[in-house]
Design goal:
Elements: H1 2-6, E1 13-17, E2 23-27, H2 28-62, H3 71-93, H4 101-106, H5 114-145, H6 151-185, H7 193-227, H8 235-252, H9 258-285, H10 289-297, H11 312-315, H12 340-361
Antiparallel strand pairs: 1-2
Helix pairs in contact: 2-3, 2-9, 3-5, 3-9, 5-6, 5-7, 5-9, 6-7, 7-8, 8-9
């Protein structure tokens, strides 16, 4: 009875044999750790796969037809597609012969086919191509965001952004080449740890730099809007929030293979923030049916009029006494809409014009 009480079945070990018959021991703790790691990382990759597919569909459905030919839309769509394929291949790896328990503990991969090796090499290549798409999209958006900054500052910011992006892409390319050789030769990957660490560090530095540029620039824009009396929740606040959330979440959440989540978060948040901001702006630009009817019947001061409430030119430029019905008051008085909601809508239209001007100057 004493012996049976002292025996712990959860800590026992069992014997396996190599191909030449040499025995070796595997403990239950090692087996549990291996199985748990496989489950956790499979859930991680499956969640990234599903999120990429959903946001790719959302992006294709919600983007306006005239915006689908822009380079940023094309790059973001390609990035989501690559991220979906990358995570799909990762899931295939953890459900294939590479992840069999005996192959792992005995380091015997004799039953792994050539297609499984090609799958592993393809994952490494897709990681590099995905990073190129992400960095390119970030560079294009930096040019747009900084279009109102002084030209000297624009050049400094863009050059430093290009250097950080190029450094991250270069390290990822080197890791892609060397890691592919180690995969095909089944060599131990311990010598690659410094290169993998340097790749992750340079990628994190690059993404953090872009986050800092976006948040600071949008922070100044929000401050200027506040000074102008525009305190409503608009597209700029949305982009500011998304950038702030991303800059924190990627280093707070701890999961197996968390480095792969960084690229997924960037790939998803880039189109998500623009779609959210665009939806908010479209909602502000669209007048309600009641205001449309009121605009046809009433003038600015509430009296009947035969003309429209706001003509076409006033929607494309700031309010002025020439295009409003404020002729009943003094021309020296600053014109303003009859309520704050209209005023905020006009300011957002002006912000949209600045953004479109930035795309034109950036050649996008």
């Amino acid at each position: 009875m004493a012996n049976s009480t002292a025996f712990d079945p959860f800590s026992q070990s069992f014997t396996l044999r190599l191909r030449d018959g040499t025995p070796f021991e595997v403990t239950m703790a090692d087996l549990d750790e291996y199985v748990l790691y496989g489950l956790q990382i499979s859930i991680n990759y499956a969640a990234q796969l599903g999120a990429s597919l959903i946001f790719l569909i959302v992006l294709l459905l919600l983007t306006k037809p005239d915006k689908r030919r822009s380079p940023i839309f094309v790059i973001n769509s390609v990035a989501l597609t690559l991220n979906f394929l990358r995570n799909l291949l990762q899931c295939l790896y953890y459900t294939g012969p590479f992840s069999e328990a005996y192959a792992y503990f005995a380091a015997d991969y004799s039953r792994v086919s050539a297609s499984d090796f090609a799958n592993q090499v393809a994952i490494t290549v897709l990681n590099w191509v995905l990073l190129v798409c992400v960095e390119t999209s970030l560079l294009l958006q930096v040019r747009v965001v900084c279009v109102t900054v002084r030209r000297a500052y624009q050049q400094v910011i863009f050059v430093f952004s290009a250097l950080t992006a190029g450094l991250a892409v270069g390290f990822r390319l080197a890791y892609c080449i060397v890691n592919s050789k180690y995969i095909l030769s089944l060599a131990p990957t311990q010598p690659l740890r410094w290169l993998a660490s340097a790749t992750n560090i340079t990628t994190s530095i690059s993404i953090c730099w872009f986050c800092v540029v976006f948040i600071i620039k949008l922070g100044f824009a929000l401050d200027q809007r506040k000074k102008l009396g525009v305190g409503s929740f608009g597209p700029m606040q949305i982009i500011f929030i998304m950038g702030s959330i991303f800059s924190v979440i990627e280093y707070v959440v701890l999961l197996p293979s968390m480095d792969s989540n960084v690229l997924t978060l960037v790939t998803i948040f880039l189109p998500l923030s623009s779609l959210w901001a665009s939806a908010s702006l479209d909602q502000r630009k669209k007048p309600s049916p009641g205001k449309k009817f009121q605009g046809k019947l009433l003038g600015r001061n509430g009296t009947a009029t035969t003309g429209p409430f706001v003509d076409e030119k006033s929607l494309l430029g700031p309010l002025s006494p020439a295009n409003t019905a404020a002729s009943v008051s003094s021309q020296s008085d600053p014109p303003s809409p009859s309520n704050t909601h209209d005023q905020h809508g006009f300011v957002d239209l002006e912000a949209q014009k600045v953004i479109e001007l930035g795309f034109q100057r950036a050649g996008i």
